[in-house]
Amino acid sequence: MFSPQLTFVVATENDLPVFEGLAREGMASYYAIHQMEWKSEIFLDGYRKTENYKIERNECNVGVLRVSLENDHVYVYDLHVQPSVRNQGIGTEILAFVENLARRENKSHVRMCAFKTNSAINLYQRFGFKIVGEDDRLVKLKMNLVALNEPAA
Predict the structure, then answer these.
(1) DSSP readout, the chain?
(2) Tens place of pLDDT for every residue, the chain, 153 residues?
(3) 128 in a structural domain
(4) For residue 119, is it within any domain?
(5) Quick check: is 12 in a domain?
(6) What CATH number corresponds to the domain at position 130?
(7) The whole model's pTM is what?
């Protein structure tokens, strides 16, 4: 269940600076470790192709979420929580929102990737995501919903 203080607001093009700023800040250490360069034009292109939500608590931005509704799943492109409000259950509530969205849209699962050193992987696994693949930098995560969507026998 979502906190009455947490609001998911559909973002617009005007919100792009907030999204990019929080995403860039959240990814900076991973990009540095892997000697990757942030490219604003790639982020902007992705932003225009996804459903984007500002996450607010008491009218203050506490996070951002970018998702895409694919044929059989929801793909989470970005999930970032402001550093000052981490470890307060906001990430769990965002994941619950994503799960609810996937169920409403009759999707069978939710997918995402995370850098291997991302401490939020533990949260994702507690929430029900399983690691289904990896490469030298990333883990691929999937949470199946099919069993939970099917009627009881």
Answers:
(1) ---TTEEEEE--GGGHHHHHHHHHHHHHHHHHHTT----HHHHHHHHTTSEEEEEEETTEEEEEEEEEE-SSEEEEEEEEE-GGGTTSSHHHHHHHHHHHHHHHTT-SEEEEEEETT-TTHHHHHHHT-EEEEE-SSEEEEEEE-HHHHSPP-
(2) 455 588 999 999 999 999 999 999 999 999 999 999 999 999 999 999 999 999 999 989 999 999 999 999 999 999 999 999 999 999 999 999 999 999 999 999 999 999 999 999 999 999 999 999 999 999 999 999 965 545 544
(3) yes
(4) yes
(5) yes
(6) 3.40.630.30
(7) 0.89
Query: How confident is the model over 1-30, as pLDDT tens digits?
Result: 455 588 999 999 999 999 999 999 999 999
User: Which amino acid is located at 132 in the chain?
Assistant: V
Number of domains in the chain: 1
Q: Would residue 1 count as lying in a domain? A: no
Domain that holds residue 65: 6-149
User: How many other CB atoms are found less than 10 A from the CB of residue 104?
Assistant: 9
Contacts 24+ apart (CB under 8 A), 79-88: 79/112, 79/120, 80/22, 80/23, 80/25, 80/26, 81/55, 82/22, 83/25, 85/57
